[in-house]
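=== Structure Prediction Worksheet ===
Name of assembly: unnamed complex
Input type: mixed (protein and possibly other molecules)
Chain count: two
Listed entries:
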Amino acid sequence: MAEPRPYPQAHDDPPAVRLALILAAVLVMVLLVVVPLANVFYEAFADGVGVYWANLFEDPDTLHSVKLTLMVAPVAVLLNVVFGLAAAWAIARFRFPGRAFLTALIDLPFTVSPVVVGLFLLLLFGLQGYFGPWLREHDVKIVFAYPGLVLATAFVTFPVVARELIPLMEALGAEEEVAAVSLGARGWQVLRMITLKNIQWGLLYGIILCNARAMGEFGAVYVVSGHIAGKTDTMPLRVEKLFQEYNLPGAFAVASVLAMLALVTLGVKTALEWKTRRELAEAKRLAAAGGGE
Amino acid sequence: MSIQVRRVTKRFGDFTALDDVSLEVPSGALLALLGPSGSGKTTLLRIIAGLETADRGTVLYHDEDMTASAVRERNVGFVFQHYALFRHMTVFENIAFGLRVRKVPRAEIRTRVHELLRLIQLEGLERSLPSQLSGGQRQRVALARALAPAPKVLLLDEPFGALDAKVRTELRQWLRRLHDEIHVTSVFVTHDQEEAFEVSDRVVIMSQGRIEQQGSPAEIFERPANPFVMDFLGNVNVFHGSVAGGRAQLGSLEVDYPEYPHDDPRAATAFIRSHELEILRKKNGRPALEARVTHVNPARPIVKVCVYSETFGVVLTVDVSWERYAELRLNVGDTVYVSPRQLRVFVQDYAI
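=== Predicted Assembly ===
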């Protein structure tokens, strides 16, 4: 709720200026977001619903790409939930040398180009890479195969969960966890009964955001997949391939699925954001009042 | 269950929080750790609980060495300054927590929690969330939660620190009564000397990581061990002067001090409590200081009179009974004589 203003809005801009600014913002949004998004659905359905359906479910390569994405993203998200929780716990609960460095390191995947990430992985696990000969000897395929896709996706989306949890856990503080320990709880009981309960909405928000990023990941996956149709093509890669083959309705049909995923994510995100903001505010209020009156 | 702390030292970086501290808490006692902030009292409490580890020294519970034991194995109840209630759990679940993690059967948990709800007089609020309770209610829930697993030792860190004055007074009387009922060995930390003296059987006064004095409230009040304790207890006037040949010289005030019969003079500090000073209209032959009345505060059961002594250049506070006040008919600006009925002199060690 906005605070009531203590004095008349004397320093506000005149209505004409406000209207012009709002219109400019709306125009940019329409041109850059609404029109392209609507166009995706328009193109996808250009030849009718029947063709749309066939493009999605009757092309075996497209169907495989959907299945592959549904297999890669959840695993990458699961890895990031585990890593993100551990990283957030370490950073929010402990003071240790190198803590600031670790915090910066978590953001690294956001600052490095995904293509470079893909090249890293090639350099490590590719045939000519450091572990290449050993991997070939033991018949383990990472690059141009499922593990490579998971690794690339997990690396690129790594910061999402951790960044969501660190400020939340810092605001909540360790007091309740210490209290639980003093009452005889073991480590995992504290995690399950106190920590996870307190961060549940923030964590869910992180998972959904991470999932959206994972399903849409293109750059890093492009490099390590080797885009073998029906084998290592994920949905974004499939969109690109169909587009190159001038199969526009097909490309837009797959793109429309990704776009719908984005819209659902946006809706859930807004709802959860509202919930976590309330939790954060509550945590801060309790901390400020010292729990007292 | 008695507690013994033996020669415990704790450092945080360069800061020595506890410096070779030894302490014994008799079984069933209610002991207060009293001291200014930074005196190490909370650190000592957390080391007793096992929430902090000592750099050196041992902690014993009834002759059993607990120094290396985890908090879980010590079976202590800890009440936190800001309650630290579990925000997403109801009052019932908060109190039940210590029993749930110990896998106590459901029916037993129900009985125990309701028993405690009765004890803290919050029956009917078991479904409320902590955010729906007042500060005093939260603190009582925190206490019930700590007591639920029947701890051998109850430790309270500034339990009433975040409450307003009225609730605070009520809760500490309630804590005293509660302790008389359940007799669990308890240690509580406070910086409020009134609270410590009112609630506890034994008071331990700490400063800068050391114990300055320990004893019953009466012992400490009547025989403060050193200038720090005297000063910390408050309501006291401080005089600087010297002692020699069985006499103490404090400005124009000269009193007998047979504890120091030597001839070489030494610097000394005298402490006189407000109620140990007497205001006279005329000199009566006893040692007295001339002073001017600067302020009269009649708002308490005792009239507090401030007088200014020219020779010392200090303002003294004097407690005067209402009868005596009526007799004296004091007005601001009057010149009076102030005479100590009793005073404590601490001779300073040789200083350079």
